[in-house]
Design a protein that fits this description.
The structure holds two protein chains of two kinds. Helices cover 41% and strands 17% of the residues of chain A. Chain A is built from six helices and six strands, in the order ααββαβααβαββ. Chain A has a six-stranded mixed beta sheet. Chain A is globular. Chain B is globular. Chain B is mostly beta strands. Chain B has a 16-stranded antiparallel β-barrel with strand order 2-3-4-5-6-7-8-10-11-12-13-14-15-16-17-18. In chain B, a hairpin with a 4-residue loop joins strand 16 and strand 17. Chain B has a single domain, classed as Porin, CATH 2.40.160. Classes of the chains: A alpha/beta, B mainly beta. Chains A and B meet through helix 1 and helix 5 of A and strand 2, strand 3, strand 4, strand 5 and strand 12 of B.
Chain lengths: 149, 413
């Protein structure tokens, strides 16, 4: 393949990608961030959300140790994906990459909002997310700085 | 009668190919039928949670032209393409974690099913800026060196072979020693992850490097002793999904070579032996692009014959992938490899180039099937820089081009 053919293909792909709209803000309203009452913070930045769920951060700025809790499907999960800038497939591949090189443990993954709430309520430092309308007894809701939660 | 026999001979590769392909797909079918087995396991030891994860991959390779990667891939193809691993790890407290992984493979003539320690280390993270690891650790080198065996993480059945040759994985994959790593945040400018490491580089008696030495009519019974250092600087841009970086691995090595033509042992020393990588990766919505450039430079001196061989290989690739839906991802790449950049690369002995196209089917969260086609131009550096193509597997000589079909299933939990 000639160089100019490769460049042409790349230019076409770049244009296609540029046409994909961003969606993080639109998804924000569909997610409620919840934490175990042991977590001292009451609000959290988008950067911290990204760091917690990409397992690059295990403690908040106030020193509280946090443990991410994921869900496998649903509107809240789609909203979380927009915050971390990944699709479900690339987030899974990213986390498994850490696990299979020994750099992190796989976060707890729940199948429903109720399961997330139950786990977060009983686990010290746990931070999870549920649908905005989901009841979350036994947990505290974290406001997202500059966000809607 | 003659016509009938010829007809049977023509059919044999097709039947054999079908048999191998069904064998590969049966791995996916069994894994889908037993979903309970494909769940991550965790148990408690002295109040600590230990996670257990594993993977198993089965491939089938069919080629026209040359046999590739020591696999007897021409004719009816071959399913001698099996590998897998299992690991256990535990986060003992917020700063300390320990773990280990076993890995084994049987890829053509490589690996022979031997299971060895893939990685095993203790990791202590003081804070986000600095942490240390000690033990056997995967090298931070380019985008995929540390995860190259785990094809289930990638779009492709075979990573671009110019930069990630399956046969030569052990040359750069890990070290026994120590790492210092951390993240430096620069707020508006994104963040910079760094890893610096040093130690010895384990030898692999069943790997492609030793196989390549033997391909030249030489023997190396005592192994290749290597040590060195490396670093990786990885910038995560403020633009969501964009990463770029530079890595270097610098080693020295030595070993004794035996030849039937020379009545005394030859002492080989490799100094320097370096790898440089420049890479970028971008993910947005359903799109994923990556690219990487590699330079592998070495000077080999042989005593007492006083011969010196300088090797300066260059390679790069560009990949693009689009996830069509939850169960399907389509991808393509172009891989380019020049074994000796100091000489004319137009000869098929001095390049291995070509495109690949892939369809990845995710049958569920744990089981994937990939169907991939390759067109490869050239067969590269036979002998000193053998990569993918070996004389012993192609006794009738090499053809200029190779077309290849790869089917690969993976199960991971």
């Amino acid at each position: 393949m000639k160089c100019n053919q490769i460049l042409l293909v790349l230019a076409g792909l770049a244009l296609a990608v540029a046409a994909v709209p961003g969606s993080a803000a639109a998804q924000g309203a569909e997610l409620k961030l919840i934490a175990n009452p042991s977590v001292a913070a009451t609000e959290i930045s988008v950067g911290e959300i990204r760091a917690i769920f990409l397992v690059t951060k295990t403690a908040l700025a106030d020193g509280t140790t946090v443990e991410p809790v994921l869900t496998s499907t649903g509107a809240a999960h789609r909203a979380l994906l927009s915050y971390v800038g990944k699709t479900d497939a690339t987030l899974t591949a990213y986390l498994r990459g850490l696990v299979f090189t020994g750099k992190a443990s796989m976060p707890k993954t729940c199948d429903s909002d109720a399961e997330v709430v139950a786990y977060v309520a009983k686990t010290k430092g746990a931070v999870g997310y549920v649908s905005a309308s989901a009841p979350a007894a036994g947990t505290k809701t974290l406001a997202i700085k500059g966000g809607t939660s | 009668m003659t016509h009938k026999i010829l007809g049977q001979l023509d059919e044999r590769p097709t039947r054999s190919a079908l048999f191998h392909a069904l064998r590969v797909l049966s791995v996916a079918a069994v894994a889908c039928a037993v979903p309970v087995a494909a769940q991550a396991q965790a148990f408690q030891v002295a109040k600590e949670t230990v996670q257990v994860h594993g993977f198993f991959q089965q491939g089938y390779m069919l080629s026209r032209g040359n046999n590739v990667l020591t696999v007897d891939s021409t004719g009816g193809g071959s399913s001698a393409m099996t590998d897998g691993g299992v690991n256990m790890s535990s986060q003992l407290n917020t700063k300390l974690r320990v773990g280990a992984q076993l890995y084994g493979r049987n890829i053509g003539q490589l690996g022979n099913g031997h299971v060895g320690l893939d990685w095993a280390f203790a990791d202590y993270r003081f804070n986000k800026w600095i942490g240390i690891r000690a033990g056997k650790v995967k090298n931070a080198l380019g985008l995929y060196t540390d995860t190259q065996d785990m094809e289930f993480l990638q779009t492709f059945a075979l990573l671009p072979q110019g930069v990630y040759p399956l046969d030569l994985r052990s040359v750069t994959i890990a070290h026994v020693g120590g790492d210092v790593y951390g993240t430096l945040a620069a707020r508006r400018a994104g963040s910079l992850n760094y890893t610096v490491y040093a130690g010895s580089i384990p030898d692999d008696a069943r790997g492609g490097y030793r196989y390549g030495i033997e391909d030249r009519g030489l023997r190396n019974d005592d192994g290749v002793k290597r040590s060195g250092y490396g670093f990786d600087l990885r910038w995560t841009a403020p633009v969501n999904g964009l990463q770029a970086g530079y890595s270097r691995l610098s080693m020295t090595g030595s070993g004794v070579l035996l030849s039937k033509q020379v009545p005394f042992p030859l002492q080989a020393t490799v100094d320097p032996w370096t790898e440089d990588r420049v890479y970028a990766d971008y993910q947005k919505a359903q799109w994923h692009f990556s690219g990487e450039w590699r330079r592998a430079f070495s000077t080999v001196s042989i005593q007492p014959t006083r011969s010196i061989t300088i090797s300066d290989a260059r390679s790069w690739y560009l990949t693009g992938a689009y996830r069509v839906g939850k169960a399907l991802e389509l991808g393509a790449y172009y891989s380019h490899y020049i074994p000796d950049s100091r000489t004319d690369s137009s000869s098929p002995t001095n390049h291995v180039n070509g495109p690949a196209v892939t369809a990845r089917f995710d049958l569920n969260r744990y089981v994937a099937v990939k169907v991939e086609g390759h067109h490869v131009d050239g067969y590269g550096g036979v002998g000193a820089n053998a990569q993918n193509f070996y004389i012993r597997n192609n006794p009738g000589g090499f053809t200029t081009t190779t077309n290849m079909f790869v089917l690969r299933t993976s199960v991971s939990f």
